[in-house]
Write a structure and sequence with these properties.
The chain is α/β, with parallel strands linked by helices. Helices cover 39% and strands 19% of the residues. The protein has one domain: Metal-dependent hydrolases (TIM Barrel), CATH 3.20.20.140. The strands form two sheets. The chain has a seven-stranded parallel β-sheet with strand order 1-2-3-4-5-6-7.
Length: 270
């Protein structure tokens, strides 16, 4: 059993289950054998600054501190953040991180520059050519995000593809191996872990984000340490689909899972 979950949400995320209190999230993690949990609620810099949603950072910090006190003998809880779209407001993103000193920073992109969150795109009707163009722009934006050096973990890098596939479409990543290699190499060079996001198993992808071929490419490029996260938005999904992910990673010859807290790395051999 993998004892780490480095990507989980609570009711402080705008899109999470209201039942995802810190008590419920921590108790679910403990019941499932998770020993190290990072609470990484959403903070898309553009979304917060442009008024799309709010994040009560003070309330979240207080809740995490109280949960650490309550569950500290059973669970190592890390106060983290899922920092999204930092490339669009890099100075503001850096100031935010410096002010609050998060223990785990998950880097992601949900909104490309000038675009809505991919979750709201009309994936049933977008042409394959237009989606391909957007996908390549997304990879370039992720690469720039890695270059900023703000984040510990590179999260769910096939996020747009998830919605394309859920719309009943197919998308073969083999054509963009060079672009993926640039992204992964940049992440490795900046000391970032590649996330194996298990939400894909329960959201119609049949596997994690990214898919097995991308994890294999990461290994070929010299990547050895992976992060794992359920991306739970409800307490029941903490640590979900870990058995399937563990079997996949073993089949790829990847046997190390890492957890980062305050720049310290713990590892677990699967």
């Amino acid at each position: 059993m993998i004892p780490y979950d480095a990507h989980a949400h609570s009711l402080f995320s705008y899109d999470a289950d209201p039942a995802a209190t810190l008590d419920a999230v921590c108790e679910s993690a403990i019941a499932k054998g998770i020993t190290h949990l990072a609470l990484t609620d959403h903070y898309d810099v553009n979304a917060v600054l442009d008024g799309i949603y709010t994040y009560d950072v003070s309330a979240a910090k207080t809740a995490v501190e109280e949960a650490k006190e309550k569950y500290g003998n059973l669970l190592t809880l890390s106060w983290g953040i899922e920092l999204g779209s930092a490339t669009q407001y890099p100075e503001e993103a850096e100031a935010f991180l410096k002010k609050y000193k998060f223990e785990t920073v998950v880097g992601s992109t949900h909104y490309m520059t000038g675009c809505d969150d991919f979750a709201y795109w009309d994936m049933k009707n977008i042409s394959h050519e237009d989606f391909t163009e957007a996908w390549l722009l997304y990879l370039a934006e992720l690469t720039r995000m890695c270059e900023l050096g703000h984040s510990d973990i590179l999260a769910h890098i096939t996020y747009p593809v998830r919605y394309f596939i859920r719309a009943g479409r197919q998308f073969d990543l083999s054509f963009c191996r060079d672009e993926l290699a640039d992204l992964l190499t940049t992440a490795i060079d900046h000391g970032m872990l590649l996330e194996v996001n298990t939400s894909g198993y329960r959201q119609g992808m049949g596997g994690p984000l990214p898919e097995a071929s991308v994890i294999a490419l990461y290994k070929d490029l010299g990547g050895r340490l992976l992060s794992i996260g359920s991306d739970a938005h409800t307490p029941t999904d903490i640590g979900a689909n870990y058995k399937e992910a563990e079997d996949l990673l073993r089949s790829l010859g990847m046997n190390k899972i890492a957890f980062i807290q305050n720049h310290s790395i713990l590892t677990h051999t699967i």
